[in-house]
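Need tokens for this chain, all 195 residues.
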Amino acid sequence: MPRAGLSRAAVTAVALDLVDAGGAAGFDRLTLAAVASSAGVAVPSLYKHVASLDDLRRLVATESVAELTRMLAAATIGRSGGDALHAAADAMRAFAHAHPGRYAATQVAPRLGDDADAELAQRAAEALAVLTAALRAFDLPEDSTVDALRMLRSAIHGFVTLELGGGFGLPDDLDRSFRFLMDGVLRGIESLTPA
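Here are the structure tokens for all 195 residues:
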């Protein structure tokens, strides 16, 4: 019989806290033993709620993407174009700082066609829909939208990864550098718009 108070959601919540406590590497270092210890149970007790470490990692990724999507939606509501993309970028960066382990979990791509990843795929599609809506103001050709999304995500992820890893040693203002980066990304996206 499952321990009172322990559920799939409770196990996921413990794992979410652990991945953030572990910093940017917390998601990769997540173990069932650590979750069990934090929950005050033996590892076999977790199997009543999650099938495996992969299952738990999928739950963490799904919840992390859902949380990021809520932040993106709140940041971009009522905005469009460059203003919306700047707000989305700032929200992603803030999420990464507040939840470095969860941010790492948002980088897990769902395996398309795998029923086990269906909910993660749905949450990822919702996150991309928020960013795609922000791109509509640019009137991009349909075949350039994916390119613009990849450009945006790659730039933000690269900056945030370097920032969280201590890769910016110069004393210059990181907020200014991030704004400069995003201005360049916006110019790149604008260049995809037909003349």
